[in-house]
Amino acid sequence: MALDKNGIAQRIAQEVQDGYYVNLGIGIPTLVANFVRDDINVEFQSENGILGMGPFPFDGEEDADLINAGKQTITALPGASFFDSAMSFGMIRGKHVDLTILGAMEVAENGDIANWKIPGKMVKGMGGAMDLVASAENIIVAMMHTNRAGESKLLKRCSLPLTGVGCVTKIVTELAVIEVTDKGFKLLERAPGVSVEDIRKATEGTLIVEGDIPEMNLN
Amino acid sequence: MIKKTVKNVQEALDGVKDGMTMMLGGFGLSGIPENSISELVKLNLKDLTCISNNAGVDDFGLGLLLHKKQIKKMISSYVGENAEFERQMLSGELDVELTPQGTLAAKCQAAQQGFPAVYTPAGFGTEVAEGKETREFDGKMYVLEHAYKADFAFVKAWKGDEAGNLIFKGTARNFNPLMCGAATITVAEVEKLVKPGELDPNQIHIPGIFVQRIFEGKNYEKRIEQRTVRQK
């Protein structure tokens, strides 16, 4: 069974370690916060200017001066801090953020990522994504393996305008966990009930399969 | 003390003209200079270049200026959530320069602090870096990004005093402090304007030297773009 979006988020949450400062992108990455173990200490950064981001506020307690990068109302946890956008990207550029999780339209086998523009169709802008992928050393992409037309999003070369070059370290999709290596996409884990062949079919780029590939453990 | 107060938004915007370059603080609709934007709409200025992280929504924030086709060029990092913007951009009516968010912040801060340009790794190898100088430092590639030049900066703070000192609140801070002193004239509108001495100097985010005009704004709507809540 391929995973749903929550399943992808749940698997990525296992990558979050004690003491990490983590930046979560919009979409599936936002869901990761719901699955992080509660026996470890983690702080979420939102690049519009908060460290120590908490859950959504209770109904009636929302504050226009307290939002995340997706413009959603949020709360600040004890120990949180606010800062301006230059300091926020200073944290990112200066490699003080340990893990970046973001979505993508395409990832190439050399780690290139495209997620900000479809020429002539969709031009929303890159927001903070280009800054994040240019500086972070630990970048996990959360996305579906194929697009709505059924075409692979794990490619030999990105066809869309790039967000960053050679930067993605890991990809988690509804089918698989994949590491980006010098030689291509290395298959690490399969979603429960998904075969290596299913993953190979959905992957356009070079897929490296070494030995038995275990199923993800989502318990 | 050097007094920076002006009577009202009309006085604060004295000298704005067609074709000028304006910086406007805010992220999404949080921390936008609502009073100054309303006045720019009223004055019906044309051919503006606006530097602002976002472009508002269809009927609020910079969307109001877009709706009246007052903006010639928009410099932003993210412009989703605005159908009229997308229409004007795709039809070529509006010139758009998309800039990575951290680079946009750095270009404002460089202007504020007298740096002509800064090197950033953001955008290297992408179309953002096309035509720009690049350089390698310690084995990594960087793009040279020039400081912005603007005529006016419009910022919004939570509290300010007559000396122009500013304190921001929550994530409404965002780009506002970085635009102070980054333009020829900085106009700060505040929710609460107080007498000198009422703000603790230890808590000031932006010293008044970066602000030319300050006034207490009126009727803040502080619209929420994505109201997300949980149940008790």
Q: How many helices of chain B does DSSP assign?
A: 6
CATH fold type of chain B: Glutaconate Coenzyme A-transferase
Rg of chain B over CA atoms, rounded to whole Å, is 18 Å
Largest sheet of chain B: 8 strands, mixed
* Percent of sequence in beta strands of chain A: 25-35%
Mean pLDDT of chain B: 97
Alpha carbon gyration radius of chain A: 17 Å
Largest interface: A-B, 53 and 59 residues
> Which sequence of SSEs, written as H and E, runs from N to C of chain B?
HEHEHEHEHEEEEEHEE
Strand order of the largest sheet of chain A: 4-3-2-1-5-10-12-13-14-15
Question: Approximately what portion of the residues of chain B adopt beta-strand conformation?
Answer: 25-35%
CATH topology call of chain A: Glutaconate Coenzyme A-transferase
> Structural class per helix/strand content of chain A?
alpha/beta
Q: What is the total number of structural domains of chain A?
A: 1
Q: Give the topology string of chain A: H per helix, E per strand.
A: HEHEEEHEEEEEHEEEEEHE
- Please, what is the oligomeric state? heterodimer
Segments of chain A where pLDDT lies below 50 for 5+ residues? none
Helical proportion of chain B, percent range: 10-25%
For the secondary structure, the number of strands of chain B is 11
CATH architecture descriptor of chain A: 3-Layer(aba) Sandwich
